[in-house]
Amino acid sequence: MNKNGILAVVVVVAAVILIGLWVLRTGQQRAGARQFDCAASPDAPVNLQHTKAAADLVRLTWGAPTAGERPTTYVLEAGTGEGKNDVGTFVAAGSATSMDRPAPPGRYFVRLFARNACGTSPASNEIVVTMP
Q1: Does the predicted model carry a pTM greater than 0.85?
Q2: CATH architecture of 46-131
Q3: Which residues contact 99 (CB under 8 A, 6 or more apart)?
Q4: Cα separation, 97 vs 81, whole angstroms
Q5: Residues facing 61 on adjacent strands
């Protein structure tokens, strides 16, 4: 094989590798195959509540979504006003139904989302946590 033949083989192999990586990256699969192990994002978690666990510790509890797809994680947002997440965003496992978080004195608006590979749920009920 001459120099041009080797170069042609290298170009074809590189193209095949790049196309394969592109297909993996974009999630394209054979017809009828599911990309994720879910069909839709989960429903919203239910009954978000809080209790004071210690002087500066708040315990948040909730129920798993009552229908729909199973969550793989929960995302908790806390903010200084309704719908804000300027205090923090925290993640819990999809099997969790509670979370303990330290909280300095203040008033916090807290909501919870369920998440899986197909997306994020609507927000749970929003609660107001006041730490003295």
Answers
A1: no
A2: Sandwich (2.60)
A3: 59, 60, 74, 76, 90, 92
A4: 24
A5: 49, 98
Which DSSP category does 96 fall into? Answer: -
Q: Exposed (0-12), middle (13-18) or buried (19+): which is 32, by Cβ within 10 Å?
A: exposed
Q: How far apart are the first and last CA of the chain?
A: 81
C-alpha distances out from residue 78 to 51, 61, 73, 101, 121, Å: 15, 14, 16, 11, 17
- Where does residue 82 fall: left (phi above 0), alpha (psi -120 to 50 degrees), or beta otherwise? beta
Per-residue pLDDT tens digits for 30-84? 455 555 678 899 999 999 999 998 888 999 999 999 988 999 999 999 999 999 9
* Alpha carbons 106 and 131: distance in angstroms, whole number: 5
Q: Where are the domains of the chain?
A: 1-35, 46-131
The pairing of beta strand 106-116 with beta strand 127-131 = antiparallel
Residue 73 CA to its chain's centroid (Å):
6
